[in-house]
Write a structure and sequence with these properties.
Layout (H helix, E strand, L loop, with lengths): L2 H23 L13 E6 L2 E7 L8 H9 L7 E4 L13 H8 L3 E4 L11 H8 L3 E4 L3 H6 L2 H9 L3 E8 L4 E3 L11 H12 L3 E5 H7 L21 E5 L10 H4 L5 E5 L11 E5 L2 E2 L2 E2 L1 H10 L4 E5 L2 H9 L5 E6 L9 E2 L15 E9 L2 E8 L4
Parallel strand pairs: 3-4, 4-5, 6-14, 6-15, 8-9, 8-14, 9-10, 10-11
Antiparallel strand pairs: 1-2, 1-3, 7-16, 12-13, 15-18, 17-18
Amino acid sequence: MNSSLKNKIQFSEDVYYMKKTIQLAKRGKYTTAPNPNVGCIIIQKKKIVGIGWHQKAGENHAEVNAINMAGPLSKNGTAYISLEPCNHFGKTPPCCHLIIKSGITRVVIAMLDPNPKMSGKSVMYLKKNGIKVTVGILCKESKNINLGFLKRMETGLPWIQLKMAISMDGKIAMPNGNSKWITSKAARKDTHQLRALSAAILSTSSTILKDNPKLTARCNINKIFQKKYVQPKRIILDSKNRIQPTHQIIQENSSEVWLIRLYHDQKYWPNHVKQIILPKYKNYINLKKLLQFIGKQQINTVWIECGTSLCSNMIKLNLIDELILYIAPKMLGNLAKPLYFDTKNIHLNQVNKFIFTSIKHIGPDIRIKLKPKFTC
């Protein structure tokens, strides 16, 4: 067999096993935060002898679980890993040391560590210890399962998803403010599923005063996910200190509540509630400073549910990474409240532009996912 054909066969095998590795990594998507989703498969003589994925922060990494399963069969085997293995002591020992000790002779990595201080160092360490390393197999697919972690590592900011439920004519509520319910039960169920994937939910005091929600994730995740999802933190913009201890979001203590304010008040707040004072812009909370603060708290992903004002400001300031619209087959009329408000755009070529990334039927509604064009 000539070398060219041999390389093609090897590449095909690498893609096949890396696909399975990335699917494994997804099993941790509800529970690994603030760590990334990582999968690992160990191959011995074209047979899978060990599988593992990172299940929860502070617990074994994917490589450890796979090597533990494979045992002595790891020797002379190939490890497929969706993210460059760690080479430093954190809450767990370095995975590179275990890989070398196990006798694995080849490692295939989808993508390098996004942390500039660590990127490529594990690859060099493995090579110095006689292990063959291949990098870049299904790199894009690996990035797609860790968008929040990657963005926070590279920019210090979390991945921002802005969700809105709207009518066909782009309205979010009737003139009297009534919005329950524009979309269907199926759409609301889907929303809770996506909430559970986020590390934090961001909203405003206006939304709390109008709807009095708990802002929790309430869903049943597939049996394949072995650990219960963690309730997202709830972050509320409350520049005028309007939130009261009697609101449901305060009464519900399943996760922390951060009241983002311009000054403290002296009310008694339960232990799960924190008042956080941030720099202001004029008499408003500085949204850019807020996102920087959130990133420093190791929050990878933020899910926003809000009204027209915050929605418009987040879009105008180019602060979102993904816009998710649930569109109901209803018309609310020209007096209803709009999704977006901006009086500055007077030319068509100056408006905010988006790219469709996904369109899906959710019950009688349509869910559209878009990304801002400036991110392309």
